[in-house]
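Below: protein 1.
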Amino acid sequence: MIPSLHNGITALKSLSQGLQVLGNNIANVNSLGYKSSRANYSDNFYLHMNDAEAGPDGEPSNNIQQHGTGVHVSSISSNFNQGTIEVTGLDLDLAIQGEALPNAGGFFEITDPETGELFYTRAGAFESDNAGFVVTRDQYRYQLQGVDNVVSVALPNPETQSLLARRVEEDGVINVVVHDKELQKDIVTPVSQVKVVNFLSPQYLRRVGNGFYSNGRAGQDLAGISGNNVPATGSNGKLKQYALEMSNVDLTNEFATMITHQRSFQAGSRVVTTSDAILSEAVNLKR
């Protein structure tokens, strides 16, 4: 009866990990740019009591006994489908709009200005700092990367120009609308272009929290970066200003999956309790 106990325990451990994944999805239902995860289960290695062998006359013998050893979480995959686009009133709120596979149009690339480490995110909540650089709107203040360099919305001639508006086009070009005091008119000037990074195998990206992903250590390229960095071209999504991408968690599906996990957990616990009862009876046979 010991193997059946082990099988039941592996079910309880694996389903607990699956419930952890579901709980994390539900907890991040309102997180900007969050991508849901799914636990994938697989059967464990088998114990072969008798190997298949040929009989005396050369005929194959089907006298093989394969005993399973339970279940385990083989992998945790991410769903990179696009989340709901929510309209905001901030001009540096950006969303990547695109359903192109495998990662719905790409990611924003951001960098830690102190270490130079690169991260990737779908959470496009940005703002400009005192120097005019576009940074993430959180405690990290990571700088948004452009096609040529870090994205800046600083005025070309701040002594003679006053900012009226900032426009981000679908192809990532950022234009500033300024009033020029010398020319006595309003002019539109392109100042930067946002970079979008697409991956060939986004499942290899590593989650690091706060909606950020890593493509490995310096010099690594785990997910396979695509060479095209211009939004709205090729398989890259187009940018949408005054908008943010919300989580792609489907609560209805998550709760339904949670119910099936709960029932499976109950079944696994029943295997444990039944095996324990049979072992108890075996122990008491001598009495």
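Below: protein 2.
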Amino acid sequence: MAMSIEPLGPTLAARVTGLDLTRPLDPGQVAAIEAGMDEHAVLVFPAQRITDEQQVAFTLNFGALEETAGGNVTPKDQRRLDPQLADVSNLDQHGKPLARDDRRRMFNLGNQLWHSDSSFRATPAKYSILSGRVVATSGGNTEFADMRAAYDALDPRTRDEVEDLVCEHSLMYSRGALGFDTLSAEERAMFAPVRQRLVRTHPKTGRRSLYLSSHAGEIVGWPVPEARAFLRDLNEHATQPQFVYVHRWQPFDLVMWDNRQTMHRVRRFDAGQVRDMRRTTVAGDGPTFPQAAAA
């Protein structure tokens, strides 16, 4: 069966069929996926029963892997997966659901806030690729917001206002919004804020996007309360239903998205259920803004 890309959402997301991701892709298939990402920003590959090794191999078609270190509070001896993969499940190293008050679980609750993966890194992520090995039977949907459409829908005054703004991003901001602020000195150093432009331009299509995230907690040169109020307004604007695609997971779905053009969040689910989700991440090409003056 030939590869097919069928749009799903009003402004973003498409379903890809006719590919077996357990097998190597040819250059034409890789180019077609990249073109699909440029257009749709989110691609859904149903029923892909891949292994971790096959997921890594698929990811490497699109660039180098991003390091997972520095994005969580899980000690090395408690990791469940190879460090090439980010573990965004609710499981401990023995494959059991984390206790409700487990520090790792509370930190991961930040994934329920709208965010862009790795905006807290000086070089933010390009693509994220998430495999649903075991999915929640109730809840646990992932929502994606089209930041291109959100930018296009700004009124002219706001569009002019955001054009040259720079934000500071840190996991301390997103986790602090949930009351998770008991961090060690080492963790605070690891999560030191980085600077990102508030408006990005896609390198291939030239489309402009808002670059928002719950990790963004300050605007350079603005009073903090004013910055956070403005960022809240922008987030509310960008996540209106007309800009959002909701993915309802089926077992072994693989979903790929462009962090430069979208935000996403997971919805609540029964914490006692096993939800085994494994993410590989394609590293970005470079910073959006010089970091020398970051806080």
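Helices lie at 27-40, 52-59, 103-108, 147-152, 156-162, 171-176, 185-190, 224-238.
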